[in-house]
Amino acid sequence: MTDDAPSTDRRPLRVLLASPRGYCAGVERAIQIVEAALETSDDPVYVRHEIVHNRHVVEELEAKGAVFVDEIADVPDGARVIFSAHGVARAVVDETEGRHLQYLDATCPLVNKVHAEAASRVRQGYHVILIGHAGHPEVEGTLGQVPKGAITLVQSVADAEAVTVPDPGRVAYTTQTTLSVDDTTAIIATLQSRFPALAAPAKADICYATTNRQDAVKAIASRCDAIMVIGAPNSSNSRRLVEVAAAAGCKRAVLIERASDIAWDSLDRVSTVGITAGASAPEVLVQEVIEALGRRFAVTVENVVVREENVVFSLPRALAV
């Protein structure tokens, strides 16, 4: 049976639709920057790395003329380049300026906040512990804000129990913005027990959107037989939603990129399915999944709203109307 195969005996399926879900303000801003740059230029616009972690979004922007590259070295002389929402190391900015390339910075303002905190703490003589996932672009960008060795990356409670610092009296922490709130709380507690003088950010670094989406998943998890998180496999916040759902009581939580990824056999004995989307996933993919379910089941949708979001980030001055 294919996704579009009709059913003559559709059984009931309740869908709990978590809210907030999908795009956050930082993702909205990054996409708007690329679209505005394309509208104001007849020349190709280059983007270093995926602007956000979602293949659907990247392909839509490619269709409009954006050219995605891996490194600044791949950008032709005289071209315009955009940095992704995840942020970049200082060396990337230096390389771009050294080649006299025009650039727009689509880094999420909340990631820039982490960058600024890390750099400020290092200038004040602190050793910084960064809680995050190795290899993630946001982490690479934060590590690249300060001299090598000034930040130590910690990924787990076990890491926090083993980490050493030059001076336990001058240590601070910061975090990636897209982590599990509960996991990060446990890591911070371990660090605080080991380093009583540990300096904390003035405001939590895990962003409002990550927190809200995790709270929304927690609100539906115990009511669901299965949960589908719509997002890319390289999206940290989407992967955390799967983990949060499982920890909150729904062991059949899976990550899918779009409706074509649904494992229909897994829904054979499901009466209630939860749906949410990572902060880089557009609402069109959520509706695509609901429509696909509706072709096989008699679907009823219940919106579960944990809180409203009204955050908006302004565009760079170079693009502001």
Low-confidence stretches: 1-7
Mean pLDDT: 95
Q: Largest sheet at a glance?
A: 5 strands, parallel
Q: List the secondary-structure elements in sequence, H or E.
A: EHEHEEHEHEHEHEHHEHEEHE
Helix content: 25-40%
CATH fold-type name of the largest domain: Cobalt-precorrin-4 Transmethylase, domain 1
CA radius of gyration is 21 Å
Largest beta sheet: strand ordering: 10-9-11-1-12
Shape: flat
CATH hierarchy class name of the largest domain: Alpha Beta
The proportion of strand residues reads: 15-25%
Helix/strand-derived category reads alpha/beta
> Could you give the distance between the termini?
50 Å
Overall domain count: 3
What's the architecture of the largest domain in CATH terms?
Answer: 3-Layer(aba) Sandwich
Supply the CATH superfamily name of the largest domain. 4-hydroxy-3-methylbut-2-enyl diphosphate reductase, catalytic domain
Number of strands: 12
